[in-house]
Amino acid sequence: MYYNKQTQQWEIDMATLFIKNMVCNRCIMAVRNELDKLGLSVKDIGLGEATIERQPTAEEKRKLDEALMALGFQLIDDKKSRAIEKIKNIIIELVHHQDSEVKTNLSALLSNKLHRDYNYLSNLFSEVEGTTIEKYFIAQKIEKVKELLVYDELSLSEIAFRLNYSSVAYLSNQFKKVTGLTPSHFKQIKDKKRQPLDEV
Question: What is the pTM (predicted TM-score) of this model?
Fold first, then answer.
């Protein structure tokens, strides 16, 4: 705690933790649970970061890191890794968690959210990850296409529109390039793998 002279009030010295491999709401719940177990009060939590009421002690940080690693997560300390994780989380949020269509300019979005030049972010991502931001974005879109094909609620043209593909043919070509299968072949394989409930 510290005394803020401007507001003339005692305020809590909050800390932000950066966490690798958080990709969904279940990840957020799992990380929150581990922070609660250690008595680290969560003020705010989202993909890739958690704001807690105070700086954790070295021992608390070590215990948290161990607990997170057991769940497939990892605390990140260096700035490059934080930037990479933020890029990934913005793309995952954009593709998997926003109801609106993916119709934004990715380079502008990343530059605005991370307050960095896109060329810097692009070069950093390629250097650390061994792939480009664009390829990572395409891979996430293809994962979303797979998910939507399995749900079987939208036609391929509706999926193409939702994920901002210019045409069904373009989506199909990209899908085949990444997976080796056409969307319809992928769907057939998935349908065959599903067993009726009485056979489970």
Answer: 0.71
Long-range contacts at 21-30 (CB < 8 A, ≥ 24 apart)? 21/72, 21/73, 21/74, 22/47, 22/48, 22/73, 22/89, 23/47, 23/89, 23/92, 23/96, 24/96, 27/73, 30/71, 30/73
Q: Which of 30, 18, 147 is nearest to 87 (CA)?
A: 18
End-to-end alpha-carbon separation of the chain, Å? 56
pLDDT along the chain (200 residues), means of 10: 50 77 90 93 90 89 92 87 92 80 80 93 93 95 93 91 92 95 88 49
d(CA 169, CA 64): 47
User: Virtual CA dihedral for 148, 151, 155, 158, nearest 10 degrees?
Assistant: -40
Q: Which residues, in sequence order, are bridge partners of residue 74?
A: 20
Q: Which long-range contacts (CB under 8 A, 24 or more apart) does 23-26 make?
A: 23/47, 23/89, 23/92, 23/96, 24/96
Contact in structure between 190 and 149 (CB atoms under 8 Å) = yes
Among all chains, which residue has been given the structure tokens 């989380």?
A: 89
How far, in Å, CA of 194 to CA of 197, rounded?
A: 9
Q: Residue 168 carries which side chain, given as an amino acid letter?
A: V
Domains of the chain: residue spans and CATH: 1-77 (3.30.70.100), 78-200 (1.10.10.60)
